[in-house]
């Protein structure tokens, strides 16, 4: 056999290493140098651990390659050097982490002027990150001794790899005490204040974005760490600094700077949105909507943050009315003058977060400003902006599902407190939600009747209308919603009732129609099985389960589980945990009362008894144990139909011997099933 031969040929690297004059570049030109390094090739590791080789590897990472080189291979050696140094070989990690000269050479990359080469910066960040992870005490002690480290991080924060390095410094150190020391050190260096200062109109867009993302990740990491180590005696100093009143005021002043820089506004609002999060984000930046009356919050919102935002709600409202100027945008269906813009979209997201927290003072301010009415106007004005439509729908759903308002002092949570739902009344009375839905629906139907295009917000409008209907019937505010609908003018109320039973009902029916046809599809095959004849119901649980699977909404739970419940994607320990909820709905009962099955059983028994009566000594023993196959119900019924045709054929050949008949049934024994359940 082939495996008796030794197929493991020695690596060419071993041959090269036998030469005394071999160079580092010669080894790096070999295709399998990385595999040999990770496989702990002793000769290769010893060669790489030479001082001159380690210095050359670090030099490849931090020094700009010659522009005279071909662009295709210009970054070949820097890339391979990075991979060799981050191959997680303990001997290499020890030498890099313990030799001051190598660390100084690596650190010198930060001394370059901005902007840094993004590719070399990624190599530098990757090497230093693995050193922080494997040698945390030595590396942190080295960085603390470099008094300009935080200054250089702030200087190069516009380079994404440097931002990643800062976050690695917070996440790669796992022991609580060393991590707390790093947090205290960074707080003493005023890292939070200096990042907030970057989110200013005078800075460029890359610095805005990376500083904002850094602060958002610091908030989330700090909150997650506080949940994991709940008995920690020391609070997170970075989060505490970020939640201070003066820091929030500085953020807000950057937003409302007279220059109105959209990049700075959006970046600052992103930080405020993270501070207002009461739950971890689920997927792609979305937060699960949950009525504020329910006590399911994971994080608490600091009162100083909420108070600072509340004091500037009127300024946020002005941003909705007069956002930063944007040029006219031409689209395939028309001209946007002005377009919605990222500023207004993020202001609406901020309002939805405030509605999620649901405090009476903030709600009252929103009512006085009529901010809900403004975003509702935008919903109908910008027909094709589904990002906007989604946020407005979230706001309306939160108002409909939020009967309670929080008024407690201190930290804002989702605990119950008394309060009248003035915001819901404002939505129905001042904002005329019902009337505007009816008007928009009728306008869309008229436009479509004239051959026009269906409005882009109709799907969201249908969901909003269904949300109102649900709130009227079963929602936490059902009594108030019913009262508000009764107080509508009689003509509007009648139109709404007609709309719910006709247009909305028909739309819902059309949206929930089975995507799989229930009519039998005829094929050209002669062996086709008629499901009606086999008794396989068209409305069976299997088909219903499949239809439900197709029509289920794209919830976060569905997205997490979609396509990964198959055993080949699951860990072996988790296979037993796969959900079988739908299996309980499937009817596995075998129907034993069908005349075809009974006739088949009796014919089989009769044939065998007749053979026994013939008493042929040369025949096989009819009582010999034989394997009897039990097939599924659909095959059994199909087999029954086939047997009926066989019996009719046998009746036409009555002159044949009974031996032939017995052999015929013996040859088809794999197709027959005997139902012994009787």
From TrEMBL:
Pfam families: SAPS. GO terms for cellular component: cytosol; nucleus. Residues 644-655 have a biased composition (Acidic residues). InterPro entries: ARM-type_fold (IPR016024), SAPS (IPR007587). Coiled coil: none annotated. It comes from the Eukaryota. Residues 656-678 have a biased composition (Basic and acidic residues). Residues 628-678 are annotated as: Disordered. This is PP6R3 phosphatase. Belongs to the SAPS family. GO terms for molecular function: protein phosphatase binding; protein phosphatase regulator activity.
């Amino acid at each position: 056999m082939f495996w008796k031969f030794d197929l493991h040929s020695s690596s060419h690297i071993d041959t090269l290493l036998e030469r005394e004059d071999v160079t580092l570049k010669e080894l790096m030109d070999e295709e399998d140098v990385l595999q040999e390094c990770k496989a702990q090739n002793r000769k290769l590791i010893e060669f790489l651990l030479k001082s001159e080789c380690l210095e050359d590897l670090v030099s490849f990472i931090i020094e700009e390659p010659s522009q005279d080189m071909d662009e295709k291979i210009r970054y070949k050696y820097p890339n391979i050097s990075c991979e060799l140094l981050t191959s997680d070989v303990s001997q290499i990690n020890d030498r890099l982490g313990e030799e001051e000269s190598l660390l100084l050479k690596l650190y010198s990359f930060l001394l370059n002027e901005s902007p840094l080469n993004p590719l070399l910066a990624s190599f530098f960040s990757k090497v230093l990150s693995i050193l922080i992870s494997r040698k945390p005490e030595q590396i942190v002690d080295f960085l603390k001794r470099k008094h300009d480290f935080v200054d250089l991080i702030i200087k190069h924060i516009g380079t994404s790899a440097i931002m990643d390095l800062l976050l690695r410094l917070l996440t790669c150190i796992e022991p609580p005490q060393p991590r707390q020391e790093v947090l205290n050190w960074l707080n003493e260096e005023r890292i939070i204040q200096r990042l907030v200062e970057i989110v200013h109109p005078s800075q460029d867009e890359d610095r805005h974005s990376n500083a904002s993302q850094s602060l958002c990740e610091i908030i989330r990491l700090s909150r997650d760490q506080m949940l994991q180590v709940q008995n920690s005696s020391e609070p997170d100093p970075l989060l505490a600094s970020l939640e201070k009143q003066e820091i929030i005021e500085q953020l807000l002043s950057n937003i409302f700077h007279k220059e109105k820089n959209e990049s700075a506004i959006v970046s600052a609002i992103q930080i405020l949105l993270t501070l207002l999060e009461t739950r971890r984000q689920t997927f792609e930046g979305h937060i699960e909507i949950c009525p504020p009356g329910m006590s399911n919050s994971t994080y608490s919102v600091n009162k100083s943050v909420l108070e600072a935002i509340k004091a500037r709600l009127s300024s946020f409202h002005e941003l909705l009315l007069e956002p930063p100027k944007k040029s006219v945008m031409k689209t395939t269906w028309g001209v946007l003058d002005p377009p919605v813009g990222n500023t207004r979209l993020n202001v609406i997201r901020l309002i939805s977060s405030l509605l999620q927290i649901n405090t009476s003072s903030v709600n009252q301010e929103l009512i006085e400003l009529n901010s809900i009415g403004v975003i509702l106007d935008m919903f109908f004005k910008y027909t094709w902006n589904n990002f906007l439509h989604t946020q407005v729908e979230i706001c309306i759903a939160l108002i409909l599902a939020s009967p309670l308002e929080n008024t407690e002092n201190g930290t804002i949570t989702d605990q119950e407190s008394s309060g009248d739902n003035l915001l819901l009344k404002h939505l129905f009375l001042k904002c005329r939600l019902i009337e505007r839905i009816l008007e928009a629906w009728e306008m869309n139907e008229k436009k479509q009747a004239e051959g026009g295009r269906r409005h882009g917000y109709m799907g969201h409008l249908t969901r909003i209308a269904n949300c109102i209907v649900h709130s009227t019937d079963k929602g936490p505010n059902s009594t108030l919603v019913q009262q508000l609908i009764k107080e509508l003018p009689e003509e509007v109320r009648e139109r709404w009732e007609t709309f719910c039973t006709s247009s909305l009902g028909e739309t819902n029916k059309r949206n929930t129609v089975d995507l799989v046809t229930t009519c039998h599809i005829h094929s050209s095959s002669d062996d086709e099985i008629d499901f009606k004849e086999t008794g396989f119901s068209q409305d069976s649980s299997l088909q219903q389960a499949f239809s439900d699977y197709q029509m289920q909404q794209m919830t976060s739970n569905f997205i997490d589980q979609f396509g990964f419940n198959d055993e080949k994607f699951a860990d072996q320990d988790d296979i037993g945990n796969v959900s079988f909820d739908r299996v309980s709905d499937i009817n596995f009962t075998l129907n034993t009362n069908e005349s075809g099955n009974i006739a088949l059983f009796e014919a089989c028994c009769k044939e065998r008894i007749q053979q026994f009566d013939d008493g042929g000594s040369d025949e096989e023993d009819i009582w010999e144990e034989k394997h009897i196959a039990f097939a599924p119900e659909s095959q059994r019924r199909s087999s029954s139909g086939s047997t009926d045709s066989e019996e009719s054929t046998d009746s036409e050949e009555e002159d044949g011997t009974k031996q032939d008949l017995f052999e015929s049934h013996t040859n088809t024994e794999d197709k027959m099933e005997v139902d012994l359940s009787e």
